[in-house]
Amino acid sequence: MMLKKIKFGKIAVVIFLTILIWVWADLAVEELFPVSNVPITISKSTNRALWVSFVDENESLAPVYTVKSIVLKGSASRTSELNRKLKTGSLQLDFFLDAEQEGMDKSGKYPLDVLNLLRKSNQIGELGLAVQSCEPDKLTINVVELVKKPLEIECFNESGVPLEIESIEPSKVDIFVPTDSRLTAQVQLTPREIEQARISAVVKTPYVVLAPGQTRPAPKPVEIKMPPEADSLSEHTITEAKLGIELSVNLLGEYKPDVINYNQVVSHFTIFATPEAKQAYENQPFQMTLYILDDDAKKGPEEEQPRKVVYNFPEEFVRKDEIRPKNPPKPAKFKLIPLTPETPPSGPD
User: Fold this and answer.
1) In the listed set 143, 173, 195, which residue is the last one of a domain according to the structure?
2) What's the CA gap between 150 and 219, in Å, rounded?
3) Residues whose CB falls within 8 Å of the CB of residue 241, separated by 6 or more in sequence, listed in order
């Protein structure tokens, strides 16, 4: 009996048509996919001479607006793929507003068609989806034309307290600001930068605050020097302090720390501080802390271990640069003495 020849061409055509039908069926059935809290940001390519902001419900100006909801439309496979990417974090939906491209290049308030902006997004097009609707679908954009002005520079610490400056080079910087503005450029210095600026110049880039959360940096940094130690900090000798010991949880009940030079550590050390800072420091439960770590138990009980204590200066006065030690803290010398329980612990054999 002769076997009939297999007609591979016909089989291939059937397979191709089947796949084509599946693809057509997938494309024919569109699904709606809602997404919440999607940001629209003012594009960084916006002209530096323009200050563009979203006007929110409270009439406040912001560089970012969060769209409450966007409904996307596309095939089941496309929406399923988008859902997977959003859940795994491999994709983040974000949109940008280029005010000049939208014809918003003069001072004033402009209506923004949010739905139209989203529909023009390349990101949505590349996903093979379309924007069905959004909430809100209309926004107001505020545009202010800026002019370049030479601004004086003010320096502040992290708490916003003005700092006395010895010199700033250059003394002024050119920054774009509103025409009728009386703003000054600002520089914020950390406690470490303040300390460094008393020795040599610190390089920082000034900025201007146009509105809460909206700043514009200067094109170039400046060099800042501060005068020597402020007169408001006096020298104080702490005659007796309390030492706290922080023992690792793994060592609790197993070892007893023995600070050999305790009196030397807690007695007669000098700080620079304002009267208020000194009083707050002395009111702390412990003026210094010795930290003992798990690895310290690896050494024998007779072996002395040195470690510097940590001064517990109140954070409020540290931020304002109103308290600091005159000299590095003295190292404490300690031993870890194993504790022998009176009765052996109970447990299974």
Assistant:
1) 143
2) 12
3) 266, 267, 269, 286, 287, 288
pLDDT at 6: 53
- Residue 3's alpha-carbon distances to 6, 61, 151, 186, in angstroms, are 9, 81, 95, 91
The answer to whether residues 210 and 301 belong to one domain is no
Residues 109 and 37 in one domain: yes
Q: Count of domains in the chain?
A: 3
Clarify whether residues 266 and 207 are in a common domain.
Answer: no
Range of the domain at 184: 146-225
What would the pLDDT profile of 123-149 be if each residue is shown by its tens digit? Answer: 998 899 999 999 999 999 999 999 999
| Sheet with 167-169: strands ordered across | 167-169, 222-225, 202-204
User: What is the tens place of the pLDDT at every residue in 150-176?
Assistant: 999 999 998 888 998 999 999 999 999
C-alpha 331/C-alpha 168 separation (Å) is 39
CA 131 to CA 30: how far, in whole Å?
Answer: 12
Q: How far is CA 297 from the centre of its chain?
A: 37
Q: Which amino acid is at 165?
A: I
- Give me 65's structure tokens: 């607006």
How many other CB atoms are there within 10 angstroms of residue 58's CB atom? Answer: 6
- Whether the predicted pLDDT of 232 surpasses 80: no
Please check whether residues 188 and 111 belong to one and the same domain: no
Asked whether residue 1 is assigned to any structural domain, the reply reads: no
* Residue where a domain stops, chosen among 176, 199, 225: 225
Query: Is the bond preceding residue 221 a cis peptide, omega within 30 degrees?
Result: no
Give the pLDDT band (50/70/90) at residue 19. low
